Amino acid sequence: MKTIARGSDRAEILRRLRRVHPDTVRRWGRMSAHQMVCHLTDAFRMALGQKPVSSASGIVQRTIVKWIALYAPLQWPSGIRTRPEVDQEGGGTRPIDFDGDVAELERIIEVVANTGSGFAPAHPMFGSMSHPDWLRWAYLHMDHHLRQFGV
Questions:
Q1: What whole-number distance in Å separates Cα of residue 58 and Cα of residue 5?
Q2: Do residues 35 and 148 touch, judged by C-beta distance below 8 A?
Q3: Domains present along the chain, CATH in parentheses
Q4: How far apart are CA 131 and CA 26, in angstroms?
Q5: Which of 52, 147, 25, 44 is nearest to 104 (CA)?
Q6: To 10 degrees, what angle do helices 98-113 and 131-148 make?
Q7: Which residues on neighbouring strands pair with residue 123, listed in sequence order?
Q8: What's the number of CA atoms in the CB half-sphere (13 Å) around residue 127?
Q9: Which residues face 127 on adjacent strands?
């Protein structure tokens, strides 16, 4: 299973990220490519506990949905709503400079990948997650949004 803990998986994600440009067209959803970059950065900040995000968790999300999302051999589907704090049409960080925002995302990916602890106490949907869970989630979340833009 792919995870940003593994250097080769992280390198693959970064190569795909570098293929995104401000005018890359989305296949689904509402975000522009630049908004997606900021959304991913916000999500990593959430994972590090730097950006508080409201909970949308219940017993089903913390057990069945979490296991399927993190460990079933399925791609995440389109149409999953995000929390308002990381929604680019809500409380998410506004895009400023595409290259600078991509550089910040690349920086925070490395921080998360090399953090031995210090992750948020809980994911807003999946609840408590182990360190390996967070690193698996990070890969899958990025893969989901990069597929959204065809890369």
A1: 28
A2: no
A3: 7-148 (1.20.120)
A4: 31
A5: 44
A6: 150
A7: 127
A8: 11
A9: 123
Taking the CA atoms of residue 69, residue 116, residue 101 and residue 31 in that order, the dihedral angle to the nearest 10 degrees is 10
pLDDT of residue 97: 97
Over 47-100, what HEC string results? HCCCCCCCCCCCHHHHHHHHHHHHHCCCCCCCCCCCCHHHCCCCCCCCCCCHHH
60's tokens? 């089903």
Q: With contact defined as beta carbons under 8 Å apart, do 33 and 149 qualify?
A: yes
Predicted pLDDT at 54: 79
For range 84-91, the mean pLDDT: 81
pLDDT of residue 146: 98
- Spacing of C-alpha 139 from chain mean position: 7
Q: Considering the entire predicted model, what is its pTM?
A: 0.91
**DSSP one-letter string for 88-145:** TTTTSPPP--HHHHHHHHHHHHHHHHT-SS---S-BTTTBS--HHHHHHHHHHHHHHH
Instruction: Report the alpha-carbon distance of residue 5 to residue 110 in Å, rounded.
Output: 9
